[in-house]
What we know:
Blueprint: E1 2-10, E2 15-21, E3 40-41, H1 46-59, E4 63-71, E5 74-82, H2 90-108, H3 110-115
Antiparallel strand pairs: 1-2, 1-4, 2-3, 4-5
Amino acid sequence: DATDVEVYTVGEQYAHAEARKSPSLDGRVDRDSQGKERRYPVILSQAEKEIARKIVVAFKQQVCGFDLLRSQGKSYVCDVNGFSFVKTSTKYYDDCAQLLSHMVLQTLAPDLLRQLPIMIPSNPQPVLRR
């Protein structure tokens, strides 16, 4: 049993994850009728959420992606990619835009941030619950 999980982070507190069947199982990639690889949303374990947070901190990359391989109850980081985006998730893009807007304003114009009603995503998959 092996599952490839693609994780996309926006800061230390947000991660979006999608999974696919690992082609290493049978050499085949599952594709839909349009030829695109089939993926499905997954919930990260607490350990995987902590891995996501550590990758953001270690690489000093607020927006990045990385690949996990889930196998026999364990998760292994296979690859870390800078500035990766989910290709087909409208929710991810909406969440990402809101989070990046907040980060930019917090850094460049904190006074303006206090005046604007920027909404932080209401249902993100938090990396850590504190």
